């Protein structure tokens, strides 16, 4: 894992010499982006939807599903615009698969983000780990999802494995992504088995397990910590996608998920009027609220991201284009999109991340490059 510090010096200001690489907003700090060449970094306001073959997200009257509106979120003029101000390349020259800003820094602290490349790894599962997520309210609780078909919840303060989610009714193939809801009470996971599964961690059983993980002290007992084994999810569906589901995020009580189908789907378990906290494991219905369509993104392990306040959604495609949607609309079908391009960025963008104040958008690519886009006010 590599850490980067982001400088906010205004363009045209000489940056101090430093051994530590910085992704600066000084256009002169990178000759490839200086002068007239930087004029090719543009925001394109897109108003068209990509034609796609029939998938579960646009096939009418699919069994067990209720559509909301027309099912497409048309892209119109977006109020957000960005300018590419810098880029750099990791020295290992390997694909970069992940990036995340530190949203817990205080005002006045340097903006710091971390990248993950193919030569970095963690040990903890029986196979490769595909995503890590910290609990939104308890930073000691770390969720990991793995190629071994399971999710694991860790207490990093006491170094204990709180629970394993998988088994009898768990994922049947690699788990590729997972996300906590805003309150940290629910987890939604997805994977290569085309399924999305809901796991509640606010049950009495799980709350007791988390409490016991804090009380556990290996220096005071010879017994190992007993991890919970959760075999049955609280909801499961395969009706949203027909291929690997490689990214999932909560949007309030709604779910955003994507596959290799050139669309991010917004949906919810059950019917539109159902309370998600009362959804039963036997529920078979899902409600599709809409889609964010894009193009040239039919390979898997391409992650989208939202800003801290969930007002913007960003995704890169396999030819170096960035799509940014405005989520701050009353009617989801009127979500607006801006397409960001730079003539030197042509590799697949694997993941994006916003700074906490949404002023900076970082994208990482298959060619080990990191791209910084600053929001124009």
Structure commentary:
The chain has one domain (35-82, 103-357): Methylamine Dehydrogenase, Chain H, CATH 2.130.10. The protein has one helix spanning 204-215, and strands at residues 2-7, 22-24, 42-45, 65-67, 82-89, 96-101, 111-117, 129-134, 141-146, 151-155, 160-165, 175-180, 186-191, 196-200, 228-230, 235-237, 247-251, 254-258, 263-269, 286-293, 305-306, 312-316, 322-326, 336-341, 349-354, 360-365, 369-375. It has 377 residues and is mostly beta strands.
Kindly provide the name of the CATH class: Mainly Beta
Main β-sheet: number of strands, strand sense, barrel status? 5 strands, antiparallel
Spatial order of strands in the largest sheet? 3-24-23-22-21
**Secondary-structure element sequence?**
EEEEEEEEEEEEEEHEEEEEEEEEEEEE
> Segments where pLDDT lies below 50 for 5+ residues?
9-22, 26-39, 46-75, 119-123
Mean pLDDT level: 81
If classified by CATH, what would the architecture be? 7 Propeller
Please sum up the structure shown.
By secondary structure, the chain is mainly β. It is built from 1 helix and 27 strands. The chain has a 5-stranded antiparallel sheet, with no helix packed on it. Strands 4-20-19-18-17 form a 5-stranded mixed sheet, with no helix packed on it.
Question: What are its keywords?
Answer:
single chain, 377 residues, mainly beta, Methylamine Dehydrogenase, Chain H, 5-stranded antiparallel sheet, 5-stranded mixed sheet, 1 helix, 3% helix
